[in-house]
Amino acid sequence: MRPLGDLERLTNRVISGHAMPRDLLSLRATLRAIPRIKELFPQQDGSLYGVAQKLNPCEKELDLLEASISEEAPATLQNTGIIKPGHSSELDNVIEASRHAREWIANLETVERERSGIKSLKVGYNKVFGYYIEITRAHDAQVPAEYIRKQTLVNAERYITPEMKEYETLVLNAEDRILEIERRLFREICEELARASKRLLVTASALANLDTLASLAEAAALGRYVRPELTADKVLDIQEGRHPVVERGLTTERFVPNDSIFEPGEIIRVITGPNMSGKSTFLRQVALIVLMAQIGSYVPASKARIGLVDRIFTRIGAQDEIHAGQSTFMVEMIESSLILNSASNRSLIILDEVGRGTSTYDGVSIAWAVVEYIHNHPGLRAHTLFATHYHELTQLADLLPGVRNYNVAVSEADGKVVFLHKIIPGGADRSYGIHVAQLAGIPRPIIQRANEILHQLEASSGKAVKINPSAPMQMALFPETNPLLNELKDLDVNSLSPIEALNKIYEWQRKYVSKEKKGQ
Fold first, then answer.
1. Long-range contacts of 256-265 (CB under 8 A, 24+ apart)
2. Rg of the chain's alpha carbons, rounded to an integer?
3. Which residues of 266-286 are buried (b: 16+ CB within 10 A; e: fewer)?
4. Which is more confident, 60 or 428?
5. Quick one: pLDDT at residue 177?
6. What SS3 state is found at 209?
7. Do residues 336 and 353 make contact, with C-beta atoms less than 8 angstroms apart?
8. Does 467 have pLDDT greater than 70?
């Protein structure tokens, strides 16, 4: 099916009158392949037999395309060569007459040289006079009487003959005439194809179904997917699930699979853990696996039992919508509002960092209330995955029977942190944000100072931190007492030669940079 064209698009272009010659070539190639595709489904009891039965080869239309459209048809209707020889006697006659006229003109120079005895006689063409015979002045006496003088040059004369003008007219008018006939024939062919549009569109739909199913089957085979069990019960049981896109993008490491098994009575799963640890990937993979199962696809997991959901609601990521006058937090709240007002008991809700766009206490309060609402509302109580950095929300597992805590496993050794990307029961007690900042390349003095402030905040229960005036600060580029700045002020730049300027820079580098290194 790889070389097939988009039959639905091609048919609609034919119907609307926008088809080009290459579109009909693609349409023909697609219709040619349909009988071979139908042969792949010989069993009348096969699950795909019903789809294959809708494939209509449209033999009459294919025969028309085979007989009419040239294999080397141009891309547009502005050029000739669209119609095959033999399809139209009218077109063939015009082309033959044009070919005969071109051959006559091509042989004219040789014939006239022999007839007149003028060896230097030439046949030429320009856009002003058309075809002409040019003879030098030295052979004026040998010019045949029937030649008609058309133009005088310095050393030659140009002539025409009545017969030459007749053939010229045939040649020059043939191109326009051929183009006119081919366009008319092309429109007639498209009109004939348009009358078969219903059969073509049914075939296009069947091809699209087969293409989709073949693509899903190929992805399942290559990705080691399994057939999920779909049930009307409210169940979400995914074992060793994987993200179908992220997994394929990994080249140097193995994707870490994770379970998502909701226990009986479990409604909301609060997931805590540091950034870059895989929380968002886990949320997305659960949503994708549920979606893939409901469209009839195998899923990237070792086993899956999934209850049908009516909709999947996600609140992942946020950005300002300046054009609408909405901040990040406003966008976040609008999307959360839509979810809470539209979800049902059979929905799947994915929430990532709700409340992060405002102050800590406001954010915690909103996130807490959202979890309570989903858990307690009699018309909601939908399966929910809620990722958050607010560790305060882990207390909800002790207060609400349908809430469970999970976190992303982290390994610490020798002051280094390794994210294991594994979702395990329990709440996280740290966010490791400073470690992530270090991985991002934040300067070391800032990381050290951030660790100091973190310890002080943890020791003082979040009270204000005192500023240590002797703490190392980043040196300004040009402080007021910088000796380098003083030398720059006294330097006459305009009087320096290039070599003197380079020497000065070298001197400063040796004087100030080496001192700085020694100080370190």
1. 256/420, 256/421, 256/422, 257/301, 257/302, 258/282, 258/285, 258/421, 258/422, 258/423, 259/423, 260/236, 260/286, 260/385, 260/423, 261/236, 261/237, 262/235, 262/236, 262/237, 262/383, 263/404, 265/401, 265/402
2. 41
3. ebbbbbbbbbebbbbbbbbbb
4. 60
5. 86
6. helix
7. no
8. no
Place of tokens 């290459």: 22
- Give the pLDDT score at 111: 87
Q: Which helix (H) or strand (E) holds 355?
A: none
- Cβ atoms of 95 and 80 closer than 8 Å: no
In 3D space, the residue among 122, 142, 132, 140 whose CA is nearest the CA of residue 168 turns out to be: 132
Q: How far is CA 17 from CA 21, 72, 179, 187, 337, in A?
A: 12, 21, 18, 8, 47
Beta carbons within 10 angstroms of residue 414's beta carbon: 4
Tell me how far CA of residue 428 lies from CA of 272, 425, 435, 450, in angstroms.
6, 10, 15, 20
Q: What's the CA gap between 473 and 341, in Å, rounded?
A: 51
How far is Cα 85 from Cα 62, in angstroms, rounded to an integer?
Answer: 17
**Quick one: which of 42, 32, 45 has its CA closest to 5?**
32
CA angle (107, 115, 150) in 5-degree steps: 75
Residue 124 sits at φ, ψ, to 5 deg, of -130, 180
Sign of the Cα torsion 478, 480, 482, 483 reads positive
Q: How many helices (H) and strands (E) does the chain have?
A: 17, 14
Centroid of chain to Cα 153: 64
- The single-letter DSSP state of residue 469 is T
Determine if the pTM surpasses 0.90. no
Residues whose CB is less than 8 angstroms from the CB of residue 21 and which lie 6 or more positions away in sequence, other chains included: 69, 70, 73, 74, 75, 76, 77, 82, 186
H-helix segments, 146-224: 162-194, 197-223
Beta bridge partners of 131: 125
Let me know: does 207 contact 4? Beta carbons within 8 Å.
Answer: yes
Q: Is 421 exposed, middle or buried (0-12, 13-18, 19+ CB in 10 A)?
A: buried
| Contact call for residues 196 and 58 (beta carbons, < 8 A) | yes
Instruction: Please tell me the distance from the alpha carbon of residue 74 to that of residue 469, in angstroms, as a whole number.
Output: 79
Give the angle subtended at the CA of 470 by the CAs of 469 and 475, to the nearest 5°: 95
The residues, any chain, with a CB within 8 Å of residue 343's CB and separated by 6 or more, are 311, 313, 349, 374, 380, 382
Sheet holding 229-231, edge to edge: 229-231, 303-307, 236-241, 258-261
For residue range 323-371, list pLDDT tens digits in order. Answer: 455 677 888 888 889 999 999 999 999 998 887 767 677 888 888 999 9
Where does residue 173 fall: left (phi above 0), alpha (psi -120 to 50 degrees), or beta otherwise?
alpha
CA distance 119 to 156: 14
Beta-carbon count within 10 A of 74 CB = 15
